[in-house]
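Supplementary Methods S3. Complex input for the zinc ion-bound model.
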Amino acid sequence: SVMGLDPELIEIPSGEAAKSIHTCLEVVERLIQAGADRTSALIALGGGVVGDITGFIASTYMRGIPHIQIPTTLLSQVDSSIGGKTAIDLPTGKNLMGSFHQPKAVFIDLSFLQTLPEREFKSGLAEILKCGIIDDPALFAALESGAAEIARRDVDFLEKIIARTCQIKKGMVEVDETDKGMRRYLNFGHTIGHALEAESEYRLSHGESVSVGMIAAALLSARLNYLPSSEKERIAATVETLGLPHRVPDNSSTEGILSRLKVDKKKVR
Ligand SMILES: NC(=O)c1ccc[n+]([C@@H]2O[C@H](COP(=O)([O-])OP(=O)(O)OC[C@H]3O[C@@H](n4cnc5c(N)ncnc54)[C@H](O)[C@@H]3O)[C@@H](O)[C@H]2O)c1
Ligand SMILES: [Zn+2]
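Predicted complex, serialized as structure tokens:
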């Protein structure tokens, strides 16, 4: 026992497929067997999949127990561990069952990032860039000129951009915990991004899809004269600098993307 605690380790398979009601029930059975009660707490140690499912179970187990997030991917450190959104996927779509349940604490350790595969790392960078674009010119500029630091995963540089991104997300969530107003800025790039992600049958990662989505949104804004086209160019150039895709893959269907836009979860009637 550590510090008089008696932790029980429960592992789940990696990958989005594990964010299911099936895994949920298995974990809950394990909790019951282990004697977890309303004085127990869950610790999510892993990426966003582990974080989302742990938060969801914590919000419903015995009508709700506390949980702590220890995110180990860049995306989960800057995005999914903060804000209290929990969810599991259903066969019909992603994140269709969930709740708002804030973690008691989020502990971010940068050393986890050393083992993260390049593609996962870039996915997280896309969300950091998003925060820079929507809320912080200095963060945007840091990414614009930080290719070298990013390529070598410079710890001091990462600490700055991760901390800043967490502050931005935290600030927006505090003003709008349940996604009705300002928190929706965080959806920048996600409308077209999600449609593209699903249309690619998830061959494009979330961050890759959001990157293209941000450029598409900027392009629309520029066409409607809400955004100077020089800013749209900056966004596209930075996406490219970060090694993220900057255009829709040639084989994707415009009709497919459009029909998916019509069933967007964010849409309100
Ligand atoms: N709740 C929210 O607000 C919110 C926000 C954004 C995304 N999400 C969710 O987060 C999920 C995506 O999270 P993710 O990008 O972290 O993916 P993930 O949890 O699937 O992790 C990606 C991969 O990296 C591995 N991994 C984790 N940490 C590692 C490390 N330190 N070194 C090496 N490998 C490691 C995992 O095993 C997995 O194979 C999605 O389900 C998405 O819906 C939730
Ligand atoms: Zn996202």
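Residues 155-175 form the longest helix (21 residues). The domain at 117-261 is CATH 1.20.1090.10 (Dehydroquinate synthase-like, alpha domain).
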